[in-house]
Write a structure and sequence with these properties.
With 305 residues, this protein is an alpha+beta fold. It contains 10 helices and 13 strands.
């Protein structure tokens, strides 16, 4: 059987983690309670296998992929308890998972073989400050009538559309948690949030970036680049390590990451299907891992520019 751990027991899966796990930041943030998520295991006392679900974003498999105590029930679990959790916690309609290796890919594919599965690749980037410094001279200047602000309690409270509250609460248990652990910068027109770059996942001094420009008319004007640049400057000044993750098919996000000085280091396969489409999924809703809003028809970590 597959069981859901209580938050106080999340640390029990640390023995399953490898220092080379590309999703270590996300997993550790959920274990620590910094970010929203749930952990499901084969054994509540001594787990050998786990599914770590980042609420509204993605599921991550760790541990023994050949553990039949976990894999034998995986298909029913995904269609049952995980589906209910996804719907109730964020209104999500998709199963979306990263599989760390071929053995996990085989195990998960077998569990969801009755579904029409879409695939993609998740790219993981490392920040290169020298590349950033060399490229930032090409960034556009902020137009007249716009301001670039640190996201603090005042900016969030004065946001007339409550955009920042919605975004923050997708990743954190509360706005206060974000203000305690995360950082962010935004481009504003008056009090209106045009584009925002913020920490969507935090573990110690590692911060993963989420960035989005909210209206189509404001896209491709350099606003996301400027918000990210301020974020990266803050990281460098305070000894923080920024992380960039996006889908291979999110071409705008790939371009923006490169423009900001990020270099691709790793990739993992993504498997996805839509729960509510019983006849199969009609194409990946890849609003770009920050938009590939599969699980929750909204925004996600990654980048929309």
């Amino acid at each position: 059987m597959i069981h859901r751990l209580e938050p106080n027991d999340y640390a029990k899966i640390r023995t399953l983690l490898s220092p080379k796990n590309v999703n270590d930041l996300t997993i550790q943030a959920i274990i620590n309670g910094t970010n929203r998520g749930a952990i499901f295991v084969d054994d509540m006392e001594q787990p050998r296998t786990a599914l770590v679900d980042q609420t509204g974003v993605i599921s991550i498999f760790v541990g023994d992929s050949a553990n039949e105590a976990f894999t034998a029930d995986l298909g029913a679990f995904i269609e049952g308890e995980l589906r209910r959790y996804t719907t109730e916690s964020c209104g999500g309609t998709h199963f979306l998972a990263v599989v760390p290796d071929e053995e996990w890919e085989k195990a998960v594919t077998k569990a969801i073989s009755h579904r029409e599965i879409e695939t993609d690749w998740e790219y993981y980037y490392q920040f290169n400050p020298e590349q950033y410094q060399a490229r930032k001279i090409s960034y556009r200047s902020l137009p007249e009538g716009y301001s670039l602000n640190r996201i603090d309690a005042g900016v969030i409270e004065n946001d007339p559309d409550n955009i920042l509250i919605e975004v923050v609460e997708e990743f954190y248990h509360s706005v206060d948690d974000f203000l305690q652990w995360g950082i962010g910068f935004c481009v504003c027109r008056g009090n209106t949030i045009v584009s925002a770059c913020l920490s969507c996942c935090v573990h110690e001094r590692d911060h993963e970036i989420s960035v989005e420009t909210y209206e189509e008319a404001d896209m491709n004007k350099g606003f996301a680049t400027l918000a990210c640049a301020s974020y990266l400057e803050h990281c460098m000044e305070h000894g923080l390590t920024p992380h960039w993750t996006t889908l291979e098919t999110n071409e705008e996000s790939v371009r923006l990451g490169t423009k900001l000085g990020f270099e691709r280091k790793e990739k993992c396969k993504i498997l996805e299907f839509e729960y509510e489409n019983d006849t199969g999924f009609h194409g990946l809703a890849k609003l770009l891992r920050q938009p590939f809003l599969p699980r929750k028809e909204e925004k996600q970590k990654g980048n929309t520019v």
